[in-house]
Amino acid sequence: MPADRPPPRRATPLRRPPIRESTLVRSDIDHTFDVCVRTLGVWWPVQPFSAGKDRVRDITLERRVGGGVYETWEDGTVVVWGELLIWQPPERFAMTWTSTAAPTEVELTFTALGPLLTRVAVEHRGWEALSDAQLSEDCAVPGGYTGGAYRTGWTVILGRLANAAETPHPRPERRP
Predict the structure, then answer these.
(1) Mind listing the pLDDT tens digit for each residue in 107-126?
(2) Cα dist from 152 to 66, 128, 139, 145, whole Å
(3) Omega into 172 within 30° of 0, i.e. cis?
(4) Which of 21, 66, 145, 162 is the S-S candidate for 25 at Cβ 3.0 to 4.6 Å?
(5) What is the pTM for the complete model shown?
(6) For residues 20 and 122, is the Cβ–Cβ distance under 8 A?
(7) Beta strands at 117-125 and 19-25: parallel, antiparallel or unpaired
(8) Are 158 and 151 in contact (CB under 8 A)?
């Protein structure tokens, strides 16, 4: 190595890397995105991935930057999940995630891989905002961030989205 060059820098591993998961959906990008945001309250697994569990009546995603994302319970209680930071249909959206001890961020991206194939990826980031103790706390499933619970949770959630987007909608019957 020449004397006038500094030694190469080594990449510093992230102390708290983002959670990244993805799935393939046998559906076009527009339909997949639409199912994700318009029918969130239908396909989202509220048991165990919501504050209200079986009391949840609906989940709303206000489709605009600054729009809220929240669950509404049968008794009218509203529990805020976050606020939209990025809104670029049908390619992506990002939001704050307030279901953690300190707010983090969740971004979903949608990539068309063919006319009827979409890759949906989630990146849940911002774990630096949480203390070591908070990272170990149980979330919807035991284990917290440090125990892999968020990775497990996003895998389940993406699977439910894929199933909802791939399920054919019944066509109205034709009358003779």
Answers:
(1) 999 999 999 999 999 999 99
(2) 28, 20, 11, 10
(3) no
(4) 162
(5) 0.86
(6) yes
(7) antiparallel
(8) no
